[in-house]
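Researcher: Quick test of sequence recovery. Tokens follow.
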């Protein structure tokens, strides 16, 4: 094949109306979906009105998705004001896809959360809500005012975060100016062992290439190791490419992807893009999953990695399960499988990644199947183990106001399923955050020290239909 291209190059070429693109080229591309939320939405709206005029209309109100999620459960009046700015803009523009936290008022008090996760317009974390609500499709381009927009690359699309100014331009034109990134290829061989998750895989990658090793590059994940992951776990791989500086992450599309998208997509007009044989990469690396150990990233950087086994002397004060990286229903099942019938030794905070995840925690058993009359739900297992469970939101992943659930307001050590552990990321600047898989976090919650999950996991953890359709 002449001029073979990677998946990312082929998607960008198509959206530029070209037959071929080369890494380093600057091109104009058409955008399929623009996402923003309560943190960056007001700023994006302000720039849009400043540059296009107070009466300007967005390029396509059906391709703008607004998902408030970051600062929801707080008494902070500025956070409540941001929600109202979004509501006003949505009404003015006739935007179809807005997921309102309908329980938030303008009063400077802590909002009463939704009473039923199945009965609210609110959806929770944007990167989880986007696929659930049918906004992600192979071959498309998604831009979002959040660095972890790259999560969507697990669905075989080009997805990346942009700033408010770029987002305002997209709002007005439906186009963006992009430099074509070169592609790094990461090959994982072998089936995923029961004691590993995608979090261990991406920590291995970041530990190898550093937090700047993927700067403005596509990080392509492939091999039978990736195929063996659930679709939700692949989202963890692509979610954390930004922690290596990556422009976007991407995975091959398979039956797992197609089944999910076909069941959820709100548009029929999409096309799978595949890697061309002979496509060129700027970097290649591979791992044998049979010899990879559970990993943690120690403070204060995602590339400060070591095995959980080597960190067993680290005393912990808190455990945290949640975020776009670790708040999916399969993550909750992995935690529940270890905590079932046990009691946590340290305060353990759990935040569902979306209201759908919250509902599934109430509906499903620890095998990911609808629970029987005599069975405990995932939610009940975690609650009975001593976990403190909150309604869905970004919560303490990014710190937030001091009244945020699970926020580290003191210089404590916390093991977390989140994606960043820079100083102050989850609150106090002197707090130590250890990033780890849901399995490692759950095992560590039982002992109070960083703990290798192989002490608790020997057989595959079944997740059933959870997170599938």
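Model:
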């Amino acid at each position: 094949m002449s001029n073979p291209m990677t998946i990312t190059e082929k998607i960008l070429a198509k959206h530029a109306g070209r037959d071929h693109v080369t890494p380093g080229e600057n091109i104009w591309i058409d955008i399929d979906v623009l996402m923003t939320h309560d943190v960056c939405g007001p700023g994006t709206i302000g720039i849009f009105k400043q540059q296009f005029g107070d009466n300007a209309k967005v390029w396509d109100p059906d391709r703008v998705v607004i998902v408030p999620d970051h600062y929801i459960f707080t008494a902070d009046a500025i956070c409540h004001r941001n929600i109202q700015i979004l509501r006003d803009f949505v009404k003015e523009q006739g935007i179809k896809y807005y997921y309102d936290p309908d329980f938030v008022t303008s009063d400077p008090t802590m909002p009463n959360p939704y009473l039923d996760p199945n009965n609210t317009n609110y959806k929770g974390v944007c990167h989880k809500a986007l696929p659930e609500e049918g906004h992600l499709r192979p071959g498309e381009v998604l831009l979002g005012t959040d660095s972890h927009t790259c999560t969507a690359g697990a669905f075989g699309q080009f997805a990346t975060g942009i700033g408010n100014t770029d987002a305002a331009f997209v709002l007005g034109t439906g186009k963006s100016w992009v430099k074509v990134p070169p592609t790094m290829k990461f090959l994982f061989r072998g089936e995923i062992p029961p004691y590993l998750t995608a979090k261990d895989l991406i920590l291995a990658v970041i530990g190898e290439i550093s937090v700047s090793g993927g700067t403005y590059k596509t990080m392509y994940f492939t091999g039978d190791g990736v195929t063996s992951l659930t679709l939700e776990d692949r989202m963890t791989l692509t979610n954390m490419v930004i922690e290596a500086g990556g422009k976007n992450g991407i995975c091959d599309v398979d039956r797992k992807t197609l089944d999910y998208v076909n069941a959820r997509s709100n548009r029929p007009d999409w096309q799978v893009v595949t890697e061309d044989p002979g496509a060129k990469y700027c970097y290649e690396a591979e791992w044998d999953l049979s010899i990879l150990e559970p990993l943690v990233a120690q403070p204060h950087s995602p590339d400060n990695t070591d095995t959980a086994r080597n960190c067993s002397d680290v005393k912990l004060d808190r455990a945290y399960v949640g975020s776009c990286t670790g708040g999916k229903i399969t993550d909750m099942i992995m935690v529940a499988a270890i905590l079932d019938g046990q009691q946590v030794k340290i305060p353990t905070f759990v935040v569902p990644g979306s209201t759908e995840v919250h509902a599934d925690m109430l509906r499903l058993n620890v095998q990911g199947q609808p629970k029987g009359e005599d069975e405990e739900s995932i939610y009940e297992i975690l609650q009975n183990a001593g976990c403190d469970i909150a309604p869905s939101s970004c919560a303490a992943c990014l710190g937030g106001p001091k009244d945020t659930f699970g926020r580290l307001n003191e210089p404590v050590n916390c093991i977390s399923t989140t994606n960043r552990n820079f100083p102050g990321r989850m609150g106090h600047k002197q707090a130590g955050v250890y990033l780890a898989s849901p399995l490692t976090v759950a095992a560590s919650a039982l002992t109070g020290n960083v703990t290798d999950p192989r002490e608790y996991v020997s057989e595959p953890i079944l997740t059933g239909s959870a997170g599938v359709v």
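DSSP finds 14 helices and 18 strands in the chain.
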